[in-house]
Amino acid sequence: KMADPFLYDSGERSRYRCHGQEVQIEHIKAYACKPSFFTDKAVIVVHDIFGWLFPDIRYIVDLVALHGYIAICPDFFKGTEPWKTTDHWADFADWMKDHDPMKVDREADVVLKYLKEQCGAKKIGIVGFSWGGMAVHHLMLKNPQLNAGVSLYGIVRDSEERYSLLNPTFFIFGEKDHTISYDQITLLEEKLKQYCKTAYKIKVYPGQVHGFAQLKPEDMKPQDKPYIEEARQDMFDWIKTYI
């Protein structure tokens, strides 16, 4: 039996009132939130396995907008079922076959075009969580239009070509994430040192489990709060530096 990757119960969440709105972009629905002033900087937020409707990810989108960016979370599952808290982990590998985080290029291009043509975005960053972290890692290798990336606890576990990132990328991990071993993080660091020709950073946050950085304030445990806030601040500092 595959271990449940989430040590928190993703079903037990406080409700969240969103500040943004849903938009349709070609074949994709998306949740978007804009700051109160004009900006030509945008950030794509890539959801985890629970999809674009999940309250935690919408909270992150709103937070990104609050920091002064056009923020958008497209439905990278294209209307198909996200993973649900009632699903069985035994079926996870099969579900992943139909939800491949390396097959996000077409949707990313559609959203990039929308941000540039409809929103006036000149510089675009991307942040992704878990499944979305893997998608970000992949896109930062493939899409030069993305000026900066932050991959949160999503590790791409294969060949050498996974390390020649096109633009600055920051990798965030939790020390107690039992889906990603410390060896994998060490390997990532060694390989980036060898192959990567752009700025990168890897940081591991003490005591944190998988999924730690997207919790809403009222869902945080007091002992985790400082690390969650630090990870978010680090994420925004990275984005600000490069876009």
Helix-strand blueprint:
Layout lengths: L20 E5 L2 E6 L7 E6 L8 H12 L3 E5 L17 H6 L7 H13 L5 E7 L1 H12 L5 E5 L16 E6 L7 H14 L4 E6 L19 H18 L1
Could you characterize what this model shows?
The protein is of the alpha/beta class and 243 residues long. The protein has a single domain, classed as 3-Layer(aba) Sandwich (Rossmann fold), CATH 3.40.50. Helices cover 31% and strands 19% of the residues. It has 6 helices and 8 strands, in the order βββαβααβαββαβα. An 8-stranded mixed beta sheet has the order 1-2-4-3-5-6-7-8, sandwiched between helices. The longest helix has 18 residues. The termini are far apart. The N terminus is likely disordered.
Structural class comes to alpha/beta
What's the CATH first level? Alpha Beta
Q: How would a crystallographer describe the biggest sheet? A: 8 strands, mixed
> CATH superfamily membership, which one?
Alpha/Beta hydrolase fold, catalytic domain
The ordered string of helix (H) and strand (E) elements is: EEEHEHHEHEEHEH
Poorly predicted regions: 1-11
Q: What is the percent of helical residues?
A: 25-40%
Count the helices. How many?
6
The largest sheet has its strands arranged as: 1-2-4-3-5-6-7-8
The CATH topology name reads Rossmann fold
Compute the number of structural domains.
1
Termini separation comes to 43 Å
Share of residues in strands? 15-25%
